[in-house]
């Protein structure tokens, strides 16, 4: 089958979406399909650029570009799922979040309110035209139903390099690898360090727009001896930090899916997350393979102190996290079977 996958091109911004896009293209090719990836340029601002991006996507007729017949289109991101094709499958990573779950009418503008209406109308039209709609997670499917009245089937996929994750003897630190952004809420963990009584260390890996703010927060709270902000690390280094961690911390707000949860499970590490974390809650069971706490610095600090005081119980929770990964049966083969089905 000739399959065209559509996604976004956002220069110099890389993250989980990149792994998702590359992963599905590679998996479809391994299954014997002819696959091309069409990346549409996308900018989050100014707002007029988003309007132009929607118009451009809607203008694309992908039935027979340049005389080559395309059997199926699989779209992963807004606004690419607006392109026209009679056999169009949308596998939604997330929508334009600022128009949906992150929308705040108290802080919005008239211009953005008008854009939001256009985005919702665009999504409603595009996704109801699709022959099938899948979601990156149950949380993303819930949003599609809540905001658009669209039924979507959750379709999970594995993180990259699953076979390379391992578990080594734990050292007294917890690990939190992620972009340094407000929604990931590294600030909660930094603030928690101020309330901790144990000597457990916190390792924050990654880079992003909040790097300087978090460095300043660490200095202002005087927790530099407890919190290490180590910046960008390689994939191999990331797996080594996972392997030696006592546990993994991931308190992000309303995450779409969350590779960090799955990577922790693959590394036999329990996950500390929050009640409003979104995607991670589909995998973490409180008191079993991890912990679900309030998004509160003192609550997180108390749990981190518990982890420090209970190394054996924490290791047992990590073993159950690995068992939960196997029980979930998440694979690219299953993804391809679903997306390429008749």
Give your account of this protein's structure:
With 342 residues, the protein is an alpha/beta fold. The chain folds into two domains: 2-155, 3-Layer(aba) Sandwich (Rossmann fold); 162-328, Rossmann fold. 39% of the residues lie in helices and 17% in strands. The chain has helices at residues 16-30, 47-59, 110-129, 138-148, 186-193, 211-221, 235-244, 259-266, 297-309, 311-328, 332-339; strands at residues 2-9, 34-41, 72-75, 88-92, 132-135, 153-154, 173-177, 201-205, 227-231, 247-249, 271-274, 290-293. Strands 2-1-3-4-5-6 form a six-stranded parallel sheet, sandwiched between helices. The protein has a six-stranded parallel sheet with strand order 9-8-7-10-11-12, with helices on both faces. The relative contact order is 0.12. The model has no long low-confidence stretch (mean pLDDT 96).
Summarize the structure.
With about 350 residues, this protein is of the alpha/beta class. Helices cover about 40% and strands about 15% of the residues. The strands form 2 sheets. It has a 6-stranded parallel β-sheet with strand order 2-1-3-4-5-6, with helices on both faces.
């Amino acid at each position: 089958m000739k399959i065209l996958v559509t996604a976004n091109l956002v220069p110099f911004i890389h993250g989980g979406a990149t792994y998702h896009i590359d992963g599905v293209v590679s998996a479809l090719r391994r299954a014997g399909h002819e696959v091309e990836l069409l990346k549409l340029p996308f900018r989050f601002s100014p707002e007029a650029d988003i309007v132009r991006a929607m118009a451009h996507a809607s203008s694309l007729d992908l039935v027979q570009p340049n005389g080559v017949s395309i059997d199926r289109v699989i779209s992963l991101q807004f606004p690419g799922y607006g392109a026209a094709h009679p056999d169009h499958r949308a596998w939604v990573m997330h929508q334009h979040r600022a128009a949906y779950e992150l929308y705040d009418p108290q802080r919005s503008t008239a211009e953005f309110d008008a854009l939001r209406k256009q985005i919702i109308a665009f999504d409603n039209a595009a996704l109801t035209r699709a022959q099938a709609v899948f979601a990156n997670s149950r949380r993303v499917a819930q949003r599609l139903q809540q905001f658009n009245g669209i039924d979507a089937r959750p379709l999970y996929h594995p993180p990259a390099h699953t076979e390379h994750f391992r578990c080594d003897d734990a050292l007294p630190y917890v690990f939190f690898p992620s972009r340094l952004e407000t929604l990931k809420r590294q600030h909660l963990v930094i603030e928690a360090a101020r309330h901790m009584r144990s000597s457990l260390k916190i390792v924050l890996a990654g880079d992003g727009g909040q790097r300087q703010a978090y460095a300043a927060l660490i200095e202002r709270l005087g927790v530099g001896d407890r919190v290490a902000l180590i910046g960008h690390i390689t994939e191999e280094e990331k797996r080594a930090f996972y392997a030696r961690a006592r546990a993994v911390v991931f308190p992000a707000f309303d995450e779409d899916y969350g590779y960090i949860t799955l990577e922790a499970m693959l590394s036999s590490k329990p996950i500390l997350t929050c009640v409003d974390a979104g995607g991670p809650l589909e995998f973490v069971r409180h008191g079993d393979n991890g912990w679900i706490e309030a998004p509160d610095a003192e609550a997180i600090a108390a749990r981190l102190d518990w982890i420090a005081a209970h190394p054996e119980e924490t290791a047992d929770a990590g073993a159950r996290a690995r068992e939960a990964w196997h029980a979930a049966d998440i694979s690219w083969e299953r993804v391809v079977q679903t997306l390429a089905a008749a």
